[in-house]
């Protein structure tokens, strides 16, 4: 049975300039056997937090009732006016996809509702206008973007929470507000299929 190992490395920039492109050349030396590179991912920050669906490893829900993590889904709710940062406490041992539901309290212009990670990375923007009471959903668990239960368009990425805690900037149209609900399942590392 093949063994997959995840490696991470932090790359420091020599100068504080914008990066235009990156070239990666994986190399393996002094070994025998077969080596597969399944995923190469670059992300901002110095912690592993990438959320990738369609990998060969499974994540499992907690079965043992870890001291802090919970076996059922966790959720947080709140209200945003203009913009705010939502802190999500993920006590699982690995990254978990987030299911967001945003309900505007006033009409919102197209492109004025967005979610992100950290300092604004991995941003997702709802590209359609929304009326007061509309239900906007960005669901990492099912890879869907919905408005009132029907397919909707977005620019950007599904959201995830790194193990530990993660910051999520949430923005709605200036001087307007929306209700927030975010749900996720804490996970622990799983076994190969």
What integer is the average pLDDT?
80
Strands in their spatial order, largest beta sheet: 2-14-5-8-9-10
The helix-strand sequence is EEEEEEEEEEEEEEE
Total count of strands: 15
Describe the 3D structure:
The protein has 193 residues and is mainly beta. The protein contains no helices and 15 strands. Strand 6 (113-117) and strand 7 (121-126) form a beta hairpin. 23% of the residues are buried. Mean pLDDT is 80; it is low at 51-62.
Put the structure in a nutshell.
By secondary structure, this protein is mainly beta. The chain has no helices and 15 strands.
SSE map:
Blueprint: E1 57-61, E2 74-81, E3 83-90, E4 96-97, E5 99-104, E6 113-117, E7 121-126, E8 136-139, E9 144-147, E10 150-151, E11 154-156, E12 160-161, E13 164-171, E14 177-184, E15 187-192
Antiparallel strand pairs: 1-15, 2-14, 3-13, 4-12, 5-8, 5-14, 6-7, 6-13, 7-11, 8-9, 9-10
């Amino acid at each position: 049975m093949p063994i997959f190992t995840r490696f991470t490395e932090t790359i420091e920039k020599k100068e504080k300039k914008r990066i235009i492109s990156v070239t990666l050349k994986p190399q393996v030396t002094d070994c025998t056997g077969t080596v597969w590179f399944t995923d190469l991912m670059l992300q901002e920050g110095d912690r592993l937090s990438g959320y990738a669906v369609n990998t060969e490893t499974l994540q499992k829900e907690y079965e043992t009732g870890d001291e802090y993590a919970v076996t059922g889904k966790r959720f947080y709710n709140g209200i945003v006016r203009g913009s705010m940062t939502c802190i999500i406490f993920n006590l699982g041992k690995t990254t978990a996809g987030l299911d967001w539901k945003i309900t505007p309290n006033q009409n919102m212009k197209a492109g004025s509702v967005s979610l992100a990670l950290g300092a604004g990375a991995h941003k997702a923007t709802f590209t359609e206008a929304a009326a007061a009471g509309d239900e906007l959903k960005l669901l990492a668990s099912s890879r869907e973007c919905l408005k009132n239960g029907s397919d909707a368009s977005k620019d950007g990425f599904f959201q995830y929470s790194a193990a530990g805690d993660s910051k999520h900037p949430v923005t709605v149209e200036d001087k307007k507000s929306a209700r927030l609900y975010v749900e996720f399942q804490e996970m622990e590392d799983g076994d190969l299929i």
